Amino acid sequence: MMSKKIILAGNPNVGKSTVFNALTGLKQHTGNWSGKTVELASGSFSFGENTYEIYDLPGTYSVISNSPEERIARDYVCFSDSDLTVVVADATCLERNLNLVLQIIEMTDKVMLCVNLIDEAETNGIYVDTEKLSELLGIPVTGICAKRRRDILKLKSAIAKASEKTHNFAVKTVYPSEIESAVSEMSEYIQGCDKTLSAHLCRFIAVKLLDNRELSEDLIHKYINDSKSRKYISDKAENIKSALAETGIPAVCIRDEIVESIIHLASSVSEKCVIKNDERSRDRSRKIDKYLTSKVFGIPIILLFLGGILWLTICGANYPSKLLSSAFTMFGTLLHQWLAKTELPPFWCNMLIDGVYGTTAWVTAVMLPPMAIFFPLFTLLEDFGILPRIAFNLDRCFKRANSCGKQALTMCMGLGCNAVGVAGCRIISAPGERFAAILTNTFMPCNGRFGMLTTLSAIFIGGCFSGAMSSAVSAGFVLLLIIIGSFVTLTLTYILTRFVFKSKSGTFALELPPYRKPQLIKILTRSLLDRTVLILGRAISVAAPAGAVIWLMSNLNINGSSILSICTSFLNPFGLLMGLDGAILLAFILALPANEIVLPIILMCYLSSTQMVDCSSVSVLSNILTDNGWTTLTAVNVMLFSLLHFPCATTLKTIKAETGSIKLTLIAFVLPTICGIFTCIVSNFIYKFFMIF
Please, what are the averages of pLDDT over each run of 10 residues along the chain (693 residues)? Predict the structure, then answer.
């Protein structure tokens, strides 16, 4: 039995991850935007007597430019010594996908094409002649629907056959005469320096020497062993580029000519093998996009979508939260009775139950129901194709902020978890824009903050109304907070990219995929397992030790006062300046490991309790807060500070990993904190000013 290495490449949104999952049985997911999964996913399958190791490259539209995901895809195809590169294409937009196919054909003679979504193409009146396409490209071509088991078996068989041999390509990208002559001259020179290299590889190296200096140097070091030959080849390339410049083709124009030739060839091949029924291919997407991507209606409609999700989350989370809270309370009582029968000292027993278990139970009861509602609904928008439209609509706003619409996608990820949003900033190729997006992602309220925001909004904002209006107003206020966070993000992004990182506004290619019928089972699996359970587990892992620390602070005394009350008194003057109090500030500081425990720490301070307080009843919680001096202003300032304060420990750790800079991590902590403090002080001052008059 032999093991063969197979690379899976393709544009974003062509079903590449679906093909990968179907081949390997692993559950990986890549969203509808370029580069969401920058790390390499891998798996394997067996067919016949061989085992095939599959490596799923990041989705990319090109291997010519230098964004992180494009460099990963390009270098892996060039240097990984694979047995076969399978390029997955979308049958509904084959011409655009062929650009990448032709680029990869230039890079390797071990390639095959998998045309996916054949069923969707037929629905839209599009027919792809795969035999003709194979004849034109000179490589194996297989048309499939990745959701059909028989098609996956057909693809496995095709991979097995294609990996056994290389191919004599019938197609070759022909460049303008001057560049073509230069490529031929350079290719012959390289082959003269090293006769072991194939003509195909020599031509590819020649093209890259004229087009991409960074990659060409890597290629020379990879394939040319003799240092003198390397220097001769580099010097020859510079001489040829100088000669091209004298004919009116400077170095900066060579890539444009190469790209234009590839696009022209892709169009020519597509015209010969794709048949379209014009009547049937009038996609409903255009009619919906007329409104969803409209300058007038686009953003308001998307805000309505988000407001509806928040409303459903607020309405639906209360009852299961109460059930979970009651269940955890009952189990905690039983666990306490069981520990009491052991020889464990009462001090440790109480710390484990009232500190570790109590905090963990609170976080689970508060976080799980909203996440179990929010993430499936949010994933539904993603599956349906709404998220790319959000980026499209917001691109104009971010352009004015000296950034691009990719940042809108990272902000959407931040609504689930800021750490995920920070990691998602890898899709932004310009370093200045990427750092600005990382530093400002925390202004999107993550799921850990949604529990407190929705609860306080329901008590102090929605509480002024009755019936269904109460939930609608509560959801509307949370939506307003998200809009405020977006405004702060845009403002600081402009300041950071213009004056700190001094980055020019970048561009990005965004595909608006057709609207597809969501797959409910996959949505539930992906949102509940890949997101809800993952984030909940992460929160619990930091909340449990935090609970122990908080319990110790409330139970260890100095001169008759607990450490918790001493810290509260110390912070109280500054808290009052912000329209808060010392207990609230201390709660935010102690909740650095997990935002979910801010509210229970506040209650512990108010009630002078030695354990985390469980208030499953909104009315009881409202009475406790109002009895301790809370007003609508206090609640609003708490929500504003929750929106604008420092990131949690998990997010800070992710920022350090993504930037590799302690300095930027400290800025990520200080910058939002200053914004939060300043906003609360201004809010408190304005309120008192109007109260005087």
Answer: 86 84 67 45 85 85 65 73 90 88 85 90 85 90 89 92 73 82 85 76 81 66 74 81 81 76 88 73 68 82 80 76 81 84 82 81 74 77 75 78 79 78 78 89 84 84 79 86 91 89 62 68 69 68 76 83 87 93 91 79 71 57 87 94 90 87 94 94 89 69
The pLDDT score that the predictor gives to residue 580 is 93
232: number of Cβ within 10 Å: 16
**Cα separation of 157 and 596, whole Å?**
51
pLDDT value for 33: 39
Let me know: does 153 contact 75? Beta carbons within 8 Å. no
Q: Are residues 92 and 203 in the same domain?
A: no
User: Residue 100 belongs to a domain with what CATH number?
Assistant: 3.40.50.300
Is 184 found in the same domain as 112?
no
Contacts for 508 with CB less than 8 Å, ≥ 6 apart: 34, 404, 405, 406, 429
| Cβ 539 vs Cβ 367: under 8 Å | yes
Give the per-residue pLDDT at 346. Answer: 82
Q: Is the domain of 544 the same as that of 612?
A: yes
pLDDT score at 418: 85
For residue 477, tell me if it sits in a domain.
yes
Q: Based on the domain organization, do 453 and 602 belong to the same domain?
A: yes
Q: Residues 236, 364: one domain?
A: no
Q: How would you classify the pairing of strands 561-562 and 557-558?
A: antiparallel
Q: Token digits for 206?
A: 């020649």
Alpha-carbon distance 438 to 422, whole Å?
5
Count up the domains in the chain and report the number: 3
For the record, the structure tokens of 673 come out as 């904190």
340 with 436, same domain? yes
d(CA 349, CA 368): 26
Residue where one domain finishes, among candidates 103, 135, 162: 162
In this predicted structure, what is the pLDDT of residue 380? 80
As a whole number of angstroms, the distance between CA 139 and CA 110 comes to 9
Tokens of 92: 């509904």
Is 110 within a domain?
Answer: yes
What is the C-alpha separation between 433 and 668, in angstroms, rounded?
15
pTM of structure: 0.66
Neighbours of 87 (CB within 10 A): 28
Q: Tell me the CA distances in angstroms from 240 to 184, 189, 237, 245, 525, one per residue in order.
A: 11, 11, 5, 9, 56
Same domain membership, residue 182 and residue 155: no
What is the DSSP secondary structure assignment for residue 35, as one 8-state letter? T
Query: Tokens 């529990």 correspond to what residue?
Result: 451
Q: Which amino acid is it at 578?
A: M
Answer whether 486's CB lies under 8 Å from 410's CB.
Answer: no
Q: Is residue 230 part of a domain?
A: yes
Six token digits for residue 600? 């229970």
- Residue-wise DSSP of 398-411: HHHTTS-THHHHHH
Q: Could you tell me which of 567, 581, 415, 588 has the C-alpha nearest to residue 489? A: 415
Q: How many CB atoms lie within 10 A of CB 148?
A: 13
Domain boundary among 104, 133, 162: 162
pLDDT of residue 546: 73
User: Which residue matches tokens 């109002």?
Assistant: 626
Q: Both 138 and 83 in a single domain? A: yes
Give the pLDDT score at 578: 94
Count of Cβ atoms closer than 10 Å to residue 511 Cβ: 20
Print burial letters for 525-548: b (CB count within 10 Å at least 16), e (below 16): ebbbeebbeebbebbbebbbebbe
Residue 125: inside a domain, yes or no?
Answer: yes
Beta strand pairing status for 3-10 and 141-143? unpaired
Task: Write the CA distances from 663 to 368, 435, 659, 667, 668, integer angstroms.
Answer: 34, 12, 9, 6, 9
Which residues span the domain enclosing 153? Answer: 3-162
3-state secondary structure of 517: coil
